Amino acid sequence: MNPPHISIDAWWIIAAIATVLLLVVCVPVMPTRDRKVKMACVPLLGVVFLWAAAALRGHDLESVLSMYSAGTLVFPLGLAGRGKELKKAVEDERLFGKQSTPPKLTTQLLAAFFGMLLVWMWLSWG
């Protein structure tokens, strides 16, 4: 099955939707104000990193937008529905020292990462 061709305009829309999803899903589930601010800065850091990588490696805009979109979607997909677990893990860390992350949260984050990696690879290389 060949991947669809997605135009630059469509990639801009996908990147905007991915950014909004990140801010709507991930910022509210962050347990502390400090972590909320850090999560809200993820899109800006992603843009700066990809702009620099594109300039150094000569990627076209379509590639950069696809990388940004895939990378940005990992967070909302990986944290969706796990707010209580995340808050409990941070509270346990505060009370008892360094704790491991909940297994279901870790599994969901890893599945989101590898799922988006596979989607990006399919769209990029077919």
- Runs with pLDDT <50, length 5+? none
Q: Could you give the count of β-strands?
A: 0
Mean pLDDT: 89
Largest sheet features: none
Percent strand equals under 5%
What structural category do the secondary elements indicate? Answer: mainly alpha
- H/E order of the elements? HHHHHH
- Oligomeric state: single chain
How many angstroms separate the termini? 8 Å
Q: C-alpha Rg, in Å?
A: 16 Å
Please estimate the helix content. over 70%
Q: What is the 3D shape? A: elongated
Number of helices: 6
What keyword list fits this structure?
single chain; mainly alpha
Descriptive report:
By secondary structure, this protein is mainly α. Helix content is 81%, strand content 0%. It is built from 6 helices and no strands. 14% of the residues are buried.
Please give a quick description of this structure.
By secondary structure, the protein is an all-alpha fold. The chain is built from six helices and no strands.
Topology, element by element:
Elements: H1 8-29, H2 33-40, H3 42-57, H4 61-79, H5 83-96, H6 103-125
Helix pairs in contact: 1-2, 1-4, 3-4, 4-6
